[in-house]
Amino acid sequence: MRRVAGWSVRHARLVLAVGVFVAVGAGVAAARLDTDAATDTLIDSDASSYKATQEVRREFGEEPVIVLAKGDLQRLVLTSNLGRLLRLEGCLSGKAPKGARPLPGPCTELAEEDPVRSLVGPATFLNAATIQIQRQLERLVASVPRDRLRQVLLQLAARYGITSAPSLSNPDFLAAIVFDVNRARGTPKARLAYLFPNSESAQIVLRLRPDLSEAERHRAIETIEAAVRDPVARKQCEFRGKPEPCFQLHGGKYVISGAPVVVDAVTRALKDALLVLLGVAVVVMALTLLLVFRSRWPLLPLGIALAAAALTFGAFGLLGGSLTMASIAVMPILIGLAVDYAIQLQARYDEAVQLGAAPGVDAAKLAASGGGPAIATACLATAAGFLALQLSPIPMVRGFGLLLVAGVAIAFALSFVAGLVALGLRPGAGSPGAPPGAGFFASRYASRPMRWLGRKTGRRAAPGHPTLPPHLARVLAVARTYPLRVLAVGAVLAIVGWGVGTQIETQTDIAKLAPQNVRAVKELNELQDTTGVSGELDARVTAPDLTDPATIRWMAAFKRRALRAGGFAGANASCREAEACPGPALSDFVTGGGLTPGPEGQLTRKSIRSALKQIPTYDLRQVATVDPRTGLPSGTALIGFGIRAQSLDSQQKLIERIRAAAGRPGTKGGPPPGVQVELAGLPVIAAAAASDLDSSRYLLTAAGLLAVALVLSGVYRSWTRALVPLVPIVLATGWSALVLWLTRIPLNPMSATLGALTIAIATEFSVILAARFRQERQAGRDVAAALDATYSRTGAAVLASGVTAIAGFAVLIVSEVGMLRQFGFVTVIDLAVALLGVTIALPATLILFSDKGRRS
């Protein structure tokens, strides 16, 4: 380390120029990182729910995007609004209704880019129904004798309520298709809830192509929003040679939502919000450094930390990485650790100059040999703690750990090389008196004797030696006098913290975590308030023959049981009150989609195939894969359920009830032989990920502690020496949990790595201070003098870096984004607890394990 420091400082200008050039380039690369909200960041690719979800996406498209037409349903489907919905659906699907040209700009782009895999909407459904009924009537007229035709038509009218000619311009016909005559006027049929959720809305459901890149998906969503919201597109287009409104509704409005829209908007909003807040945090940290770090060039540690973050994320981008919510959370942790590395080395450099070393190469060598090994050991132990995150079942958390390992290595290397190089270029020989790196805490009290501590020891500080603030002196005196009592009380509090930590709430409701000022979140809330539904859960059914009557009967029965399990049952079933709502299913085309047992028992393979052959292939492909040779379903079918946004814990319970409703093979109500069912979709993956995250939290904390212990014992070649800095780390994890429980701050997917964060920060502080104490003892100082020197010099630097990080990341607490606000609270608590641990528990441990402590 001495040789590296000496060579770097001798070639300071070259090293610094290369460092600045690389850091700036890396910063530019980091700024261009794409975000990644793909489900493979939430769950392992070999998980059954992930595989099922990927298969559904490959066969049917991405998670649904919802365009809600909000308004009186009768006005939406029984007036000219229906034609406008039909034109909008044609625009979004990339197809123009006959006679409508030219299409507005966004519609043209959708037609050219073709990002939409499938679309089903109220107007296209009614249009298809009209065509099918017309064809059926034509076949009846052609095949049924005239003397029986009237009777057959009357029977159909009595069964289906169709008493007038099928036409999109016939309100009576449309009303018979859409509305339930047995319920209040304007109430749609329950089986059509996925198109007509209630009497106040209709919705267009579209799925994007699964092969779109993240950028292409974002562009497709932007184009869909432009088509729906663009005033020019909505108000005026040419239809059959006449200008008239294209999409704009009379007495209604559009709302755009769905998982792809919300995830895209929230991910980008969180990234922007965090970067803005980090910018503010950097300013606050700079001001704090100017206050607490009384060294020349006090902002140098912050500059090095920012360069380390730029290099880390720039390299991450060059290796093909993308930003997830976990990788974004690396930023504040990395900056906090890098600031501490840089402050420690700068404090050592200042101390060397104050003790008489020549500024430049000599001071850099002394700083490197005096502080480098301890900081490197702390860095190695911290990295080992982060490596324990590789045991997490969540890929996003594993990536979080790896990125932090790389980040702390880069931060240490940059602090060691670039930090000492910059200091070597600093003119002057340092300030006399207290070393500049000691910060204002030491310099403020430099002229005061440690009176309270002196009464205990009968000694005063050596001339020129910085003394401690009275409150810290009292803490050290108590720790030296009653080390066992201090540790016993700390252990009891930690045990209580570990116990109550299991009761800390994990907040996973996106409506509460997401930024409330984002339009997509507002419209998600509006969608759920209007329809009772905000997402879709899919049941993927594979069978040797999807036209087998037993398979169709089971699918219809499973759908009914699942809806009852979700609270959608009875004559007045409502999506607003239930957790699960009817979606499309293959069995609906054959059984009528009834929510009570119907004529399934009379089905035959021939009647099923005959009915399905009458369905347009485009419509059939919404719910099943289709054999291109026969035009019949083959292989896979889909049963959709609309679900509401709720906590992932509640969502997981709903998923388990729906899974139970499918039954087990070979049991009553279970799928027929050869039929398999798997639940798929983002809700299934998100709920499973939240469950895995919660269940693995304490395992990861224990693994992190073990990893730190193994590294320290390997470096020190002594379990006793490894145990000394480990004690405050262990206690800090319990204290942190206790404080969080007392403050009722919930954890979330971004802050659930609480244990790893606490271990990282406490390890850094504890290892560096323990190493300095050992150096002072080896220099011949007794316990009191060693503690005095340790905490007045290295301790002051630790306090400066801790206060700086706390001040900076406290900025996150004022965020309007619930996830960032909670993460800010957790970060501040962890930093504060780590400082508390090294202030209270570490001195007691050092004294207890020192030679004098053992003799006394």
Structure report:
Strands 7, 8, 9, 10 and 11 form a 5-stranded antiparallel sheet that branches. Strands 2-3-1-6 form a 4-stranded antiparallel sheet, with helices on both faces. It is an alpha+beta fold and 856 residues long. It is built from 33 helices and 11 strands. The model is unreliable at 429-465 and 852-856 (pLDDT under 50).
Task: Please describe the topology of this protein.
Layout: H1 2-10, H2 12-31, H3 48-60, E1 64-71, H4 73-77, H5 81-92, H6 105-113, E2 116-120, H7 122-143, H8 146-160, H9 171-178, E3 201-208, H10 214-229, H11 231-235, E4 237-239, E5 242-244, E6 252-258, H12 259-292, H13 300-318, H14 325-354, H15 361-387, H16 395-424, H17 439-444, H18 451-457, H19 470-481, H20 483-501, H21 510-513, H22 519-531, E7 535-542, H23 549-565, E8 580-585, H24 588-591, H25 605-613, H26 617-620, E9 624-626, E10 633-643, H27 648-661, E11 676-680, H28 682-716, H29 719-743, H30 754-778, H31 783-809, H32 818-849, H33 851-855
Antiparallel strand pairs: 1-3, 1-6, 2-3, 4-5, 7-10, 7-11, 8-10, 9-10
Helix pairs in contact: 1-15, 1-16, 2-13, 2-16, 5-7, 6-10, 12-14, 12-22, 12-31, 13-14, 13-16, 14-15, 14-16, 14-30, 14-31, 15-16, 15-28, 15-30, 18-19, 19-20, 19-31, 19-32, 20-29, 20-32, 23-27, 27-28, 28-29, 28-30, 29-30, 29-32, 30-31, 30-32, 31-32
